[in-house]
């Protein structure tokens, strides 16, 4: 397995990670056996980066990972574990996000307990709380490093200007956002700023929430998944148009010798040496297909072909509904 590098604090991880939202009920019920099977396969294939969050399944994703590490203690040294905090339980509708120091420390301690670890390798602010300056949040995260509870930190869904403001206080290990052939907004400054600051750009949903796979979700399946049921790209007529438009991409993937998901991963990696895709799945065969994509280095001609069949702006519908847009910073 080829590697990618987190400059801050200076560790190497596999070129592809595991997005562990799939270890929760976000996309439907999941069993602990399914989670363990993916983690076993990851170890076999050399995939060592796991990305989870305290809100995934209300802690279930972290708990599954913690149970695996308890059963397989030797796996702790293998896996590089990232998790996130900063989103509230929404018991107070007026306070969806909380980045205050005391709240973050409580969330961090709870994550450590669920994950059954003494230190988290990478801790993200899942969503910015606009009432707390990002410089203050960064100082809080720096104290977590000093206390030995985390090795490094990052932010999810922030703007280039926010990243620069945070980095001026302390080096930021990673910035995470959605990035794929169907979502290329990070190319409007985030990816470039990350490169300039030696911050790893972590790409979630790199296969477009199924649009960039051999079997994209139809409306019947999307309607059963609460997030996709309200997502503009998965509502008609957008969904049918998006599935039809990606047919040439699926044919190209086959010609190259990859699955569509594998080609989507290979494209993502080709867009920068500091980019780390973290697809999520519970399906072992699908996982192996994406890992195969991470091993394939696109030629310049293949890259051009991919971007010819799926040019910037091809997708119909926003990546989030207005309700889903609460939290991510908009820019550009």
Task: Summarize this structure briefly.
This protein has helices at 32-45, 60-71, 101-115, 134-146, 160-167, 190-196, 219-222, 226-229, 238-245, 247-256, 260-270, 284-295, 300-309; strands at residues 3-6, 11-14, 17-19, 49-51, 80-85, 122-125, 153-156, 174-178, 200-204, 275-278. With 332 residues, the protein is α/β, with parallel strands linked by helices. The radius of gyration is 19 Å and the shape is globular.
Q: How would you characterize the overall build of this protein?
A:
The protein is an alpha/beta fold. The protein has one domain: NADP-dependent oxidoreductase domain (TIM Barrel), CATH 3.20.20. It is 39% helix and 13% strand. It contains 13 helices and ten strands. The chain has helices at residues 32-45, 60-71, 101-115, 134-146, 160-167, 190-196, 219-222, 226-229, 238-245, 247-256, 260-270, 284-295, 300-309, and strands at residues 3-6, 11-14, 17-19, 49-51, 80-85, 122-125, 153-156, 174-178, 200-204, 275-278. The chain has an eight-stranded parallel β-sheet with strand order 3-4-5-6-7-8-9-10. Strands 1-2 form a two-stranded antiparallel ribbon. β8, α6 and β9 (200-204) form a beta-alpha-beta unit. The longest helix is centred in the first third of the chain and has 15 residues, at 101-115.
